[in-house]
């Protein structure tokens, strides 16, 4: 079983000429083991999306090293992505931007199937696996709702036969009633084909629902890491405690979480 | 509101978009002019170059659009002018859009030195008033129709380069373009499959708008003796001739109307095509959710 | 708590290009309370809010009534509604940057607003601006007045946007997904602020959100909407704990379940 992603002391800096550089990720280390579902949580600006970009070869590391099944990940720039790294795929945040508006759904799934045409599931099976009617294959993205588009994006990622799926806030733009549904679907689809899943979200309650392990980031650093239930019930770090305490509960009691300002 | 629309079918989208009254007007006018371009000589009541002592004659049965300062039939000259102005402007716009967009797309996608060189060159051209720079280039090359087109190409490509570059820059980081690259396709396939189809609309709209500018630029150069030369019946030349004889309004008015009608027609068609080419426009009516 | 300052919406309908988008909405939003409008996107909750503000989409055909202080808001002219909005009816949206001008300082935006609506002089307006920023707990209000929107974080901007909304002492505040774009820790603070403002100023707050957890924390009564209709309307506890309508039950069941919060989480 493959699909191991390792971040080893990686640092990512963003810099523009004439402006101070920003360290988005600061010596972060953790790994996603084969077949595992890892939740990466933290507040906006903590560097979690930057890590996803790094894993996809979209930004360079200023220090440390990221590898996928032993292959070092470096920015692909204008070249094609190395074949070994194609087994790492991503589902993006914005369902309205992640599909080409001018191409039919079937054509976009076919593009992804082209990586392993012999073993890839058929377009119809892919659509079925994410709970969509195969008859919708000839439609254009705009004919679907946000939740449906995100399902198609998941199907596209799965069409490549990935070993690791990264979801970068894949449910943040969806209606609340759909968020848990789509997150669970992602987990189920990934597990059904022995794919590891790195699920990035600021929504701790959803992460708790689907992740085996949780990694908590703050200001570019990994501050806590552990099995989901353990982190949830006995958070060790003050930051994690604060984060968990801030989640409002749908208990009908009208309790507003009490959080001391940072 | 944000429900999946079940009634729209992609096959029907062009006819739907073309049903708007303005589009029909545009198509009819443009088709009319196309017919004039094709049939040209058959429609002319007189030789557009033949002079007569009947100068600046007003509208009459013999001369429907009157005559100009040399006694030539204005109607015949407007018809003959269509065969010069329209194909030449179309050619120019096509050339300038192709060259400009290609340079702009490559600059936007590759960035770095290529981007710097192309865009600084574009800035250089845009720093001069269009007509002055076109004059300089045309004068340097010598007055002829071919040189006029080259001169105009030199001054018009930068706007396409600029627009295309900014569109490509915007599209390059869109999630579906990145998703495509993550599937392992190269930059050229990405450009062709994901980027260009999604930026073509605005560029296309620009070409239809630019068609009018091309006609005016051509006329301007002709007026200055750097484009077409008298007695060629070119619309711009005819307008400038009319300006000198402003008491005889028909000399400038009819070629002016000709320019106006073809420019408007192209704008209407361009708008409709842009909408029709964009599948997202299908559900725009009645579905804008708050 | 005077009933006069509350809102009473009866049989509100909205048709747009032949489509019925609001199909007879009935609800009461009493003063000094947070009335929550819940539902998925497309349920009509935002449109209901916009109609209260007098900002329905162009071409809408409205029916029913929205009673506020004995008048039906739907009978007002656009001009009258404009005058009312900003003075009596205020709004806060999901994205605070959308409601703030990027090139005008916070002080400029706040004072212009109060000078226009409350007819205050320059000094008085400034005093009011300071007072308002204090009220929404923006740190160092005097300094904040000189800053521009991009110099603040998302949470601070939402506070400022709420400040601008309440600057003219309105009685109704329509808050459309006011915490959705914020991080959880910041969200908690903004929820606390809205609750306090509602209690202290006796505001009628119409809270529009799809997030039932936020709803449960903030709203006194919850109105669940679907397909332009109210499917459930009741006290917060009843709606969340004992939903009557199958749709509400689905919504509640779709929530990721929570156990009691960790013991270490509270000071």
Please tell me about this protein's structure:
- The complex is a heterotrimer of chains A (262), B (290) and C (267).
- Chain A is of the alpha/beta class and 262 residues long.
- Chain A has helices at residues 48-55, 105-113, 123-129, 146-159, 176-192, 204-210, 228-233, 238-245; strands at residues 5-14, 22-32, 37-41, 63-68, 71-72, 88-91, 164-168, 196-201, 213-218, 221-227.
- Chain A has a six-stranded mixed β-sheet with strand order 6-7-8-3-9-10, sandwiched between helices. A four-stranded antiparallel β-sheet of chain A has the order 2-1-4-5, with helices on one face.
- The radius of gyration of chain A is 19 Å and the shape is globular.
- Chain B has one domain: MetI-like (MetI-like fold, Orthogonal Bundle), CATH 1.10.3720.10.
- Residues 1-13 and 282-290 of chain B have low confidence and may be disordered.
- Chain C is built from eleven helices and ten strands.
- In chain C, helix 4 (106-118) crosses helix 5, helix 5 (122-135) packs across helix 7 and helix 7 (154-166) runs parallel beside helix 8.
- Chains in contact: A-B, A-C, B-C.
- The A-C interface holds A 43-44, 175-178, 180-181, 202, 204-206, 208-209, 232-235, 241-262 and C 40-41, 154, 183-189, 191-192, 195, 210-220, 236-241, 250-252, 254-259, 261-262, 264-267.
Helix-strand layout with pairing:
The complex is a heterotrimer of chains A (262), B (290) and C (267).
Chain A: E1 5-14, E2 22-32, E3 37-41, H1 48-55, E4 63-68, E5 71-72, E6 88-91, H2 105-113, H3 123-129, H4 146-159, E7 164-168, H5 176-192, E8 196-201, H6 204-210, E9 213-218, E10 221-227, H7 228-233, H8 238-245
Parallel strand pairs in A: 3-8, 3-9, 6-7, 7-8
Antiparallel strand pairs in A: 1-2, 1-4, 4-5, 9-10
Helix pairs in contact in A: 2-4, 3-4, 4-5, 5-6
Chain B: H1 13-17, H2 21-39, H3 74-110, H4 112-127, H5 130-141, H6 145-172, H7 175-182, H8 187-223, H9 235-244, H10 249-277
Helix pairs in contact in B: 2-3, 2-10, 3-4, 3-6, 3-8, 3-10, 4-6, 5-6, 6-8, 7-8, 8-9, 8-10, 9-10
Chain C: E1 7-16, E2 19-29, E3 34-38, H1 45-52, E4 60-68, E5 71-72, H2 78-84, E6 89-92, H3 96-99, H4 106-118, H5 122-135, H6 141-146, H7 154-166, E7 172-176, H8 184-201, E8 204-208, H9 212-218, E9 221-226, E10 229-235, H10 236-241, H11 246-253
Parallel strand pairs in C: 3-8, 3-9, 6-7, 7-8
Antiparallel strand pairs in C: 1-2, 1-4, 4-5, 9-10
Helix pairs in contact in C: 4-5, 5-7, 7-8
């Amino acid at each position: 079983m493959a699909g191991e992603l390792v971040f080893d002391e990686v640092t990512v800096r963003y810099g523009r000429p004439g402006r101070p550089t920003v360290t988005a990720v600061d010596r972060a280390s953790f790994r996603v083991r084969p077949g595992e579902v890892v939740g990466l949580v933290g507040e906006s600006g903590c560097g979690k999306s930057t890590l996803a970009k790094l894993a996809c070869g979209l930004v360079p590391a200023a220090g440390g090293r990221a590898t996928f099944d032993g292959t070092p990940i470096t920015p692909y720039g204008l070249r094609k992505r190395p074949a070994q790294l194609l087994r790492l795929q991503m589902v993006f945040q914005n369902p309205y931007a992640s599909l080409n508006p001018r191409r039919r759904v079937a054509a976009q799934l076919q593009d992804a199937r082209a990586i392993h045409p012999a073993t890839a599931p058929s377009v119809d099976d892919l659509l079925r696996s994410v709970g969509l009617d195969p008859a919708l294959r000839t439609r254009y993205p705009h004919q679907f709702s946000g939740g449906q588009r995100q399902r198609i994006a998941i199907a596209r990622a799965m069409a490549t036969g990935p070993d690791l799926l990264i979801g970068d806030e894949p449910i943040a733009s969806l209606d609340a009633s759909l968020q848990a549904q789509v997150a669970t679907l992602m987990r189920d689809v990934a597990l059904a084909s022995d794919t590891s899943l790195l699920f990035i979200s600021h929504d701790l309650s959803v992460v708790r629902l689907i992740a085996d392990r949780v990694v908590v980031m703050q200001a570019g650093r990994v501050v806590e890491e552990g099995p989901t239930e353990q982190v949830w019930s006995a958070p060790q770090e003050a930051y994690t405690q604060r984060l968990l305490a801030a989640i409002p509960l749908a208990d009908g009691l009208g309790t507003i979480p009490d959080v001391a300002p940072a | 509101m944000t429900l999946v629309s079940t009634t729209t079918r992609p096959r029907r989208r062009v006819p739907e978009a073309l049903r708007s009254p303005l589009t029909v007007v545009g198509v009819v006018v443009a088709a009319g002019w196309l017919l004039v371009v094709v049939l040209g000589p058959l429609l002319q009541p007189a030789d557009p170059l033949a002079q007569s002592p009947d100068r600046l004659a007003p509208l009459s049965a013999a001369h429907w659009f009157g005559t100009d300062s040399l006694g030539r039939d204005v109607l015949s000259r407007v018809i003959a002018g269509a065969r010069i102005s329209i194909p030449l402007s179309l050619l120019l716009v096509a050339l300038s859009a192709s060259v400009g967009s290609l340079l702009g797309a490559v600059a936007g996608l590759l960035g770095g030195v290529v981007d710097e060189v192309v865009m600084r060159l574009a800035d250089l051209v845009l720093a001069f008033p269009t007509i002055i720079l076109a004059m300089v280039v045309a004068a340097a090359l010598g007055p002829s129709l071919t040189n006029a087109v080259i001169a105009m190409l030199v001054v018009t490509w930068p706007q396409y380069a600029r627009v295309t570059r900014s569109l490509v820059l915007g599209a390059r980081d869109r999630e579906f373009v990145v998703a495509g690259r993550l599937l392992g396709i190269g930059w050229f396939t990405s450009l062709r499959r994901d980027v260009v189809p999604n930026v073509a609309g605005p560029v296309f709209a620009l070409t239809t708008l630019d068609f009018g500018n091309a006609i005016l630029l051509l006329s301007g150069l002709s007026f200055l003796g750097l484009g077409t030369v008298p007695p060629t019946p070119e619309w711009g030349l005819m307008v400038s001739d009319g300006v000198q004889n402003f008491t005889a309004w028909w000399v400038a008015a009819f070629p002016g109307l000709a320019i106006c009608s073809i420019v408007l027609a192209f704008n209407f068609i361009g708008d409709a095509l842009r909408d029709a080419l964009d599948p997202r426009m299908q559900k725009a009516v009645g579905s804008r959710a708050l | 708590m005077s009933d006069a300052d509350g809102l009473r919406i009866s049989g509100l309908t909205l048709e747009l290009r032949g489509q019925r988008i609001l199909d007879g909405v009935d609800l009461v939003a009493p003063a000094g309370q947070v009335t929550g409008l819940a539902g998925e996107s497309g349920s009509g909750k935002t449109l209901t809010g916009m109609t209260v503000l007098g900002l329905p989409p162009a071409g809408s055909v409205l029916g029913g009534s929205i009673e506020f202080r004995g008048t039906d808001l739907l009978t007002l002219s656009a001009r009258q509604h404009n005058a009312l909005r900003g003075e009596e009816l205020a709004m806060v949206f999901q994205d605070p940057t959308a409601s703030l001008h990027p090139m005008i300082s916070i002080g400029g935006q706040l004072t212009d607003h109060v000078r226009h609506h409350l007819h205050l002089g320059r000094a008085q307006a400034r005093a009011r601006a300071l007072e308002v920023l204090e009220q929404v707990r923006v740190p160092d209000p005097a300094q904040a007045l000189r800053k521009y929107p991009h110099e603040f974080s998302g949470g601070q901007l939402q506070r400022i946007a709420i400040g601008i909304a309440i600057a003219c002492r309105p009685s109704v505040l329509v808050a459309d997904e006011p915490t959705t774009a914020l991080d959880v820790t910041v969200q908690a603070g903004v929820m606390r602020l809205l609750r306090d403002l509602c209690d202290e100023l006796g505001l009628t707050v119409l809270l529009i959100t799809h997030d039932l957890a936020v709803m449960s924390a903030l709203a006194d009564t919850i109105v669940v909407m679907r397909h332009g209709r109210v499917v459930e309307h009741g006290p917060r506890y009843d709606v969340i704990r004992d939903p009557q309508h199958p749709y509400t039950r689905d919504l509640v069941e779709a929530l990721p379940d929570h156990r009691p919060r960790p013991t270490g989480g509270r000071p």
